[in-house]
Design goal:
Chain A: This is VWA domain-containing protein. The complex is a heterodimer. Chain A is an alpha+beta fold. Chain A contains eleven helices and 20 strands. In chain A, the strands form four sheets. In chain A, strands 4, 5, 6, 7, 8, 9 and 10 form a seven-stranded mixed sheet that branches. In chain A, helix 1 links the parallel strand 4 and strand 5. The radius of gyration of chain B is 21 Å and the shape is globular. The chains are: A alpha+beta, B alpha+beta.
Amino acid sequence: MPYTAEAFQNEFLALGATEVNSIITVTSSGAEGGRRTSGATEIIIVDASGSMQAEGRIQAARQAAKTAVECIDDGVNFAIIAGVSTAQQLFPAPGRLAVSSAETRADAIRSIDRLQASGGTAMGAWLLLAAQLFAQRPGDIAHAILLTDGDNGERAGYLEQVLASIAGKFTCDSRGVGVNWKVSELRKIADALLGTVDIVANPAGLAAAFEQMMTKAMGKTSADVQLKVWTPVNSTVRFVKQVEPEVADLTGKRVDDGPRAGRYPLGSWGAESRDYHVCIDVQPGAAGDEMLAARVSVVEGDTVHAQSLVRAVWTEDTALSTRINRQVAHYTGQAELAETIQAGIEARKSGDDRTATLKFGRAAQLAHASGNKATEELLATVVDIEDAATGTVRLRRKVEAADEMALDTRSTKTVRVGRSQ
Amino acid sequence: MTDCASCADERAAGAAFCEACGRSLAAASAPVAEPCPNCGYPGGVGADGYCERCGMLAGRPRDHLESDCGDIAAAVTDRGRRHHRNEDAMWLAVRGTDVDVVVSDGVSASFDPDVASEAAANTAGAHLGVEPDVSKAILAAKDAVAELVNGGDPRRAASNPACTIVVATVRGTEINIGWVGDSRAYWLPAEGPAEQLTEDDSWATHAIAMGTDPEAAMRDPKAHAITAWLGADAGPSMPRTGAFTVIGPGHLILCSDGLWNYLTDPADFGAVVRERLREGGTLIDAARGLIDFANAAGGADNITVALVPVSNIKE
């Protein structure tokens, strides 16, 4: 059994308390021998709109796509989509998938040289074509990489409509090159398709970014892992969030499974470990009562890989009920950190410097206290941190757009509780 | 032939598992068919002990345990009304008129104190069966409790499982007792106040011995802080012991602080126990009556009591 699920919580509640929190650490050692249990399909979507001609982006995108193709393992199905005002399949023939081999990869790399930048940006259409190609291989580990450099040119609401129809069909990591794209747009894609979003400010960094994404994708051995949460009658799941390696709210993705259980998609898995924060509202018990607030299982289809129990024990002993669980406190702080940064960026954009200063100050404090050095450094590009411990910051007069976008996209990245803490 | 409790298939006597459904016959899996004691859900309780509908724990075996040895001895342990689990444990063994009895109380501030008290009671009790030496039995229990940090939940290492213990052997009219912590032994003669045979290893006892006013000492928030215990961090202290010969009929009583907290005065303690012995009829009823007394008084802690009548009249 390669999966484990471990719950971290303070199960003791004061009388009358109804909120039960637990951090569930799910760890997989990967499939046996690191082999996939099902096939895999990779689709690379490269923005080929006219703006990609600027700053040598299209040349860098070509090089990045080639690097990604070279990382595809033998036997994996793959395709390349050229993103313009419509979705055009660059490789192989339209409507087909190629099986990776030295020969097909060489063919693909030759076809990438034909990629020309001209036309518009239509992410909804690109993703829809990808979904159609993935549909040929149900059960595969399905993963896409999407690269863009600008705003979506489709009518308002179309991208959301497409995302709603293809959610759960594949995972998609999105990258924005340059600074003329919208973080909120790519974040929508990442949220719906359980992927990541990041900025590659300098086109020269694209090849490394693609290589890293594709290498990680090749390490996935399970296609569709889910968290099943059973709760007792008269209890409700307030939220289920992934909190490590980055914050992602899964609450709205619940699919009911029987009268008192629901499944939350976790996407594809390799040898890795992620943390989830589960919050349940229960009916209060009497002193000494013990309730199972949730039974949390890691499932794949009908197979239960691992299970862990979230308990609630009511006590009059305040020494027990006021104990703070370090994991729960830490990740509550990390989630607040991400929200605070995004609120700060919003305030700064709307010219509300006072709110922005307050938010960034609080964020600096949270990042510092939790040892999230990467986020603290990103914050320092937007504000001067005078005293992180007290959250004293000053807004910088001039902020590079790329720095602010990096802070925005990476604000959801979290760190684990230091083992030595 | 007997029926399997799970699937009603007949099986030969002596079989350990049902041949039809494969379930262990010893465990009988009976709770699965039981409705939930909390909400009455007929689907019953899951394999992990929680109701599949309301989620409440269906019951813990240690919440209330009794040991009824007729006229020779009786012991009862109970969760009380305020604690979420019973961290007291007991051992009662009777061979003819020989009695071995152990009461242990887990230290709530430690991790897995219920495991500590159970290990202490079982180890000391088993040791007495081999060698009736209360001091050695307590030292064996001490080793067993100290050993707990090396297994189970890793949090045990940070907060060592710990417990108190009081041990007694009755051989004819000879009574030997030994203890660590604040679980007590009393001698209750046919008449007069109860005599406390143990001296608590507690802050209050220590303070009183050093000259503090007893009432003030007992009111101090530290009064019940114990100064000796069994556990990996207990240090090298030796158990204290006592021995005496019974010269008139009476009862040996072992109990945890869940009972004596409500009866700190030996005269009150004697009066309440005597009342339960008179009205209870059987020894086990008297022990149950003392549990009820503590629960009626608030049941703020786990309660354990053992009653052993001892007489100097040869049968």
